[in-house]
């Protein structure tokens, strides 16, 4: 595939501009105000896949947002790669923390990306990484180097829990049949340290509501005489961790896998500079569960975090009230073997028991998914490793991620396929945060590397 560098040089400006046009579409699946934009994004993906060389592409309706399915079958006897990605994005809030409008992509240089990075919501998660596969497909088709069959399944609900994807997969097992699933929705350790994600944490996401009096009350007339839902909620949340930052929900750790000293030692070989980590986040100390390193805390250990909390008056000036209600959104990142539905129920039971007299508590589960670990001795992993070796000149490091892609375990259960996670993002890309961006070097490097995965996988499958 010596032509890939030449093809990239010739087409890189077009590849960048195409991604910029896609990033202009505010496909925020969580906000109904953007529903038409989400649909517009699906149409744009369908068009891009056809232009890249897929023989067929269709918009598959679901009870929510559509799934784009496309394929190019060159020989049923050859292996089939199924590419998964998503075209929906996180809300851009808080808008005022963006240095440039989130849906008006701009290319800026940074210390990490001196060659430039595209700043926009969805740049890295996941439009930029998903679109690498579209352009890699284009290269292989246009140069007659596609060595096997390829299918694409690009959804529009990943950021809201992929609620309708499970039914779609169950209803279309034959249509989606494959030999390996390829996803780029993760990252690598550094630009000069390639890595392949071999593990993902599961997720349980809930919303809690604490209700006290039947209306907001004057804090002078009623303060000290009735339970304040905001005070109560913060105490309840604080009690969910002990002095060692260990989660206090009974049964929470029952199925947590304890890695051996040998496995933890292998993980510790990954390059990591604690001082640089703190400097990048502008913090003076790290924080987390006692007895574990920073990289262990954010990958092989479960967590519980408040993602949002509100109630009462938060506007300008003063309004002295005791709020009738207080709310919080809470996410729990889970490790393999922890069942997200079981953990959600454990949380609900425990949190309701924490409520003192004078308030009522409501726990509303939103979405979740299982964790996943992929072996490094299968042909898919070997093919990916060789691909990175070719384009980076070094062997990638297997790495467990702290993030969640709940549908990966679904794919294995329904389609009986392993998933390979070839991510090209960086921790500094600010996904889910203001000023999200994706390095142009990383984007083009992904397009360069992916075709080698196909070539290697076919050779290893013979």
From TrEMBL:
GO terms for molecular function: metal ion binding; peptidase activity. It holds the Pfam family Peptidase_M20. Keywords: Hydrolase, Metal-binding, Protease. It comes from the Bacteria. The keyword Metal-binding applies. Residues 199-358 form the Peptidase M20 dimerisation domain. The keyword Repeat does not apply. One of its GO terms (biological process) is proteolysis. This is Dipeptidase.
């Amino acid at each position: 595939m010596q032509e890939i560098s030449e093809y990239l040089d010739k087409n890189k400006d077009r590849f960048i501009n195409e991604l910029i046009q896609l990033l202009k579409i505010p496909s925020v699946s969580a906000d109904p105000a953007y529903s038409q934009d989400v649909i517009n994004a699906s149409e744009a993906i369908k068009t891009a896949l056809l232009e890249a060389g897929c023989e067929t592409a269709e918009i598959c309706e679901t009870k929510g947002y559509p799934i784009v399915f496309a394929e190019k079958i060159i020989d049923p006897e050859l292996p089939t790669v199924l590419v998964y990605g998503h075209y929906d994005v996180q809300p851009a809030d808080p808008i005022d923390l963006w240095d440039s409008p989130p849906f008006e992509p701009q290319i800026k240089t940074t210390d990490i990306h001196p060659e430039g990075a595209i700043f926009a919501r969805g740049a890295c998660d996941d439009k930029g990484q998903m679109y690498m596969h579209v352009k890699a497909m284009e290269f292989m088709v246009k140069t007659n180097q596609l060595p096997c069959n390829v299918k694409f399944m690009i959804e529009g609900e990943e950021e809201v829990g992929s609620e309708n994807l499970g039914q779609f997969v169950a209803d279309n097992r034959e249509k989606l049949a494959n030999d390996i699933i390829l996803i780029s929705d993760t990252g690598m350790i550094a630009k000069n340290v390639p890595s392949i994600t071999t593990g993902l944490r599961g997720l349980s996401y809930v919303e809690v509501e604490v209700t006290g009096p039947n209306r907001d009350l004057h804090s002078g007339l009623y303060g000290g005489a009735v339970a304040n839902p905001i005070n109560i909620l913060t105490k309840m949340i604080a009690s969910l961790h002990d002095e060692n930052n260990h989660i206090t929900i009974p049964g929470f750790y029952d199925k947590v896998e304890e890695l051996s000293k040998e496995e933890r030692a292998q993980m510790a070989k990954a390059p990591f500079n604690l001082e640089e980590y703190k400097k990048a986040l502008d913090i003076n100390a790290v924080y987390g569960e006692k007895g574990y390193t920073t990289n262990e805390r954010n990958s092989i250990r479960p967590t519980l975090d408040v993602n949002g909390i509100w109630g009462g008056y938060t506007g300008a000036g003063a309004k002295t009230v005791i709020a009738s209600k207080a709310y919080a959104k809470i996410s729990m990142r889970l490790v393999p073997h922890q069942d997200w539905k079981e953990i959600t129920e454990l949380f609900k039971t425990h949190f309701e028991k924490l409520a003192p007299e004078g308030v009522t508590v409501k726990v509303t589960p939103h979405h979740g998914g299982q964790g996943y670990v992929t072996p490094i001795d299968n042909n898919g992993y070997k093919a990916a490793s060789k691909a990175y070796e070719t384009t980076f000149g070094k062997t990638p490091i297997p790495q467990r991620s702290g993030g969640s892609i709940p549908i990966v375990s679904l794919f294995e259960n329904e389609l009986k396929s392993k998933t390979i996670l070839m991510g090209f993002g960086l921790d500094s890309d600010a996904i889910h945060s203001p000023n999200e961006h994706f390095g142009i070097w990383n984007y083009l490097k992904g397009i360069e590397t992916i075709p080698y995965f196909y070539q290697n996988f076919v050779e290893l499958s013979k």
